[in-house]
Hints:
With about 280 residues, chain A is mostly helical. Chain A is built from 15 helices and no strands. Chain A has a domain at about 75-230 and about 270-280: MetI-like (MetI-like fold), CATH 1.10.3720.10. In chain A, α4 packs across α8 (about 155-170), α4 packs across α11 (about 200-215) and α11 (about 200-215) crosses α15 (about 270-280). Chain B has two domains: about 25-145 and about 305-370, Periplasmic binding protein-like II (D-Maltodextrin-Binding Protein, domain 2, 3-Layer(aba) Sandwich); about 145-305 and about 395-435, D-Maltodextrin-Binding Protein, domain 2 (3-Layer(aba) Sandwich). Helices cover about 50% and strands about 10% of the residues of chain B. In chain B, α15 (about 335-345) packs across α16. The longest helix of chain B has 22 residues, at about 415-435. Chain B is globular. The N and C termini of chain B lie far apart (about 55 Å). Chain C has one domain (about 70-290): MetI-like (MetI-like fold), CATH 1.10.3720.10. Helix content of chain C is about 75%, strand content about 0%. Chain C has helices at about 10-40, 55-65, 65-100, 105-110, 120-130, 135-140, 155-180, 185-195, 200-230, 230-235, 250-255, 260-290; strands spanning about 40-45, 50. In chain C, α3 (about 65-100) crosses α9 (about 200-230). Chains in contact: A-B, A-C, B-C. Chains A and C meet through α1, α4, α5, α6 and α8 of A and α1, α3, α4, α5 and α7 of C.
Amino acid sequence: MVEHRGFSRFVPHIVLCIGVAIIAFPVYLCFVGSTHPQDVTSNGQMPLTPGPIFFETYYKTLFVGSSGSTREPVATMLVNSFIMACVIALGKISISIISAFSVVYFKFPFRMAAFWLIFITLMLPVEVRIYPTYKIAADLNLLDSYAGLTVPLIASATATLFFRQFFMTIPDELVEASKLDGAGPMRFFWDTVLPLSRTNIAALFVILFIYGWNQYLWPILITTRDDMQTIVIGIKKMIVTADALTEWNVVLATAMLAMLPPVTVVVLMQRWFVRGLVETEK
Amino acid sequence: MKRSTLLTSLTIAAATALASPASAQIEIQWWHALTGANNAVVVRLSEEFNQSQKEYKVVPSYKGGYADTMNAGIAAFRAGNAPHILQVFEVGTATMMAAKGAIKPVHLLMKDAGEKFDPNAYLPTITGYYSTLKGEMLSFPFNSSSAVMWYNKDAFKKAGLDPNAPPKTWPEVFAAAKKLKAAGYDTCGFSNAWATWVNVEQFSAWHNLPIGTKGNGMDGFDTVLTFNNPALLRHLENLVDLQKDKTYDYSGRTNAGEGRFTSGECPIFLTSSAFFGNVAANAKFEWGNAPMPYYPDIAGAPQNSIIGGASLWVMGGKKADEYKGVAKFFTFLSQTDKQIELHQKSGYLPITKAAYEQTKASGFYKERPHLETPLLELTNKAPTENSRGLRFGNMVQLRDMWSEEIESALAGKKSAKQALEDAVNRGNALLRQFEKTVSR
Amino acid sequence: MQKRAIFGSTSLPYLLLLPQLAVVAVFFYWPASQALWQSFLLEDAFGLSSTFVWFENYSELFADSGYYRTMMTTAVFAVMVAGLSLSLALLLAVQADKAIHGAGIYRTLLIWPYAVAPAVAGVLWIFMFQPSLGVVAQGIRSLGIAWNPLLNGNDALILVVLASTWKQISYNFLFFLAGLQSIPRAVIEAAAIDGASGTRRFWTIILPLLSPTVFFLVVVNIVYVFFDTFGIIDAMTQGGPSKATETLVYKVFFDGRLGGNLGSSAAQSVILMILVVGLTAIQFRFIERRVAY
Lengths: 282, 440, 293
């Protein structure tokens, strides 16, 4: 054991506690702000301790909505975000696992070409091709629909790569055994590959759920109806005010609610999260 | 494989289920950018219209800030999915009117729909901003405001200033701000929101100075910016000078800094008259407003102010019966009692003469003189070529450019003179590019 | 690298690839080719008229000093975020690695900002630092520092860097911690027995062993600053004041916004794509090397 004597034993804990405090401070302030009336906040006189209107604010935010802007209860936005995040995560996993399976377990003309076609998409983030992509989504009648929110984001080079890497580590003997039993490729996929991939799927799900939940620019353009909004863009819309005041308590309560699900997922599924992050590492 | 098809079909099913609300009415989509009390007015007016008849249903939808809303509208038009009514801020006017096939001019809309429409019923300083030179209304003014000077009466008392005699000229404002600064307002004597709207656009109209040739662009897209004049230079130099010790303190390009007035930090604040609702709700002190200050040595000042705010554009390519609904909605909005409601509840200006006269006659302004200040400014003198309004292409980007230059000058990175020259030169390059792209 | 045991089938592999390739073709390649085409056009906002102008959009871009300034801003931004978040994360990871008791708890308490949406992070930080309402901003101003991110470009950049760093520390921390924990204790203890001091051990043994992780994280952090900070910038500064916080990706969006300059926006997209191809090539080579080992 490396020496641990006297005061120096506590140094790591002190440093880490300071780190944790700094990291948590913005969220603490956000929570405090969500419990004070907006005239206190927008006049810059907010105290550092929680205020009196916790229940009112959160009730209003969840079930009534910001009266001054989107007028959509945040509960609806939460549902939309949840659906979007789940569909994106599951969609990405489904189409990536079968394409990785195809690339790894079959030999066919243009195999590498197909792989590269998928891989290159890593290089075209949606921000860079936003206007043409929007046009195509509109041509396909995808505006204001869950399909429009999710399908264009569903291709995943990262996930494909991740599964390819994993399939490479599955011993060849398993395939051979399966073949001896007279099983076809799809049988092998359902009976062997999928069960073996369970933890990988869980790991990837956590990462992709967060990716989906946090989408910003795409949902702003693709949704025109208030009831199709996701929570992240709900906040953006609440914070912009033309001639009126920002309802800071509602904005900050929405921010708290927007953070809650993905942070919970990360904390509760930490094991898979860490694994997913370390192993996808694009 | 199975899973993914199942998933896709689920998604599509969910999408279609949510996509079509059952109704035989003709829906009229209205994208707007109003928040707070103004948002409530939008919703109420739509509901009242929907209840007043059965054929049409106006569906208002808040799309974010002005720029976001216009951006969404343009993107939607390109994708063939434009709303019927798009609220566009005043600076988007040139871009909208240049897009001949993309919009349906309001005067044509009313004619085609057979709605009674008398352009003379509207206040000319407001509709002029959105009309052709021949007086044909292109878009329907919805929320209009002008720039006024808000001030903190309690602060005035504290600094030994007369709270009922706010400064009238810029030199008086500077003097008052110095006294306020000495009295404890040391981070901000005076300030303003909407950096270029107040300091360039309103300033020029109020002093009867041109911003650009061709009547500030109203007479043609081949306009050239000329606001690098001695008067504006002097004003900017004054601001730069006062920024050093925070007698003046910059508050950003938009109205995000308006909280500095209501919190009591900045006792003098120039911004939109529509700031009213916010002040009334948040200011914990006695306040008032006054016309914008001017430089008394400039001949003709004060002239008249121009408007800000937004108008409703009717997008092109819709069906005739949908247009009919839009026309009916505009007629509905023009009714005197609706205009009075809009004016008195939101603080925006009435657009019809009748609404203004009736509000005046009712004695409303005796109790709320601050709501009349912008109207007095707008009607101070008959508008000249310099004070009818302005119409420059890419105005949003122009404002950003001008703000950048003003910010550079205030931050001491450039001289005021250089900043003003650069603002004009860069702006002209952008105007030439706009001229090239507009459809002829 | 190819499996020895593979299936023979003519149509199945294509069928399996079909969903992914279809999405990729429709939502990646088609729009990308549209962007390429648009970069040769001069168009009005509503797409009603367009002129083919060859490389005019590109030449104007490269003649514009603003474009180089945005490149510089992006570079400075990337260096600051990478430097700050990597060093802070390393500091925390080293301490967490030492604190054998509670390392797991600290990890939990440090990694969650990864899950916060960039735009939400932007709102949190603007709420603290907005000059008229932010609690922290008022603290700074009461110290006599003229903090004004609305006017001062450096202040604004600092603010955006802080928010971006805050979000990125958790990612870097996780990788550093994993890297540190994979260093055999025996190596460190041997050095300790040799009498090397704590700091010396860190610089001569631990850091070199971590260098692959550092290199990998530098690349990831650059990519992060390029693309994932969009929401932070849009929520906080919209690229201002005076373009002081405008990154290359934000400029693509901003110049195309309101149809102001779609051609230039498209040209910038194309340039960015080429740039990202380069970055990804570096990344991919690196990953391949890791995989080989």
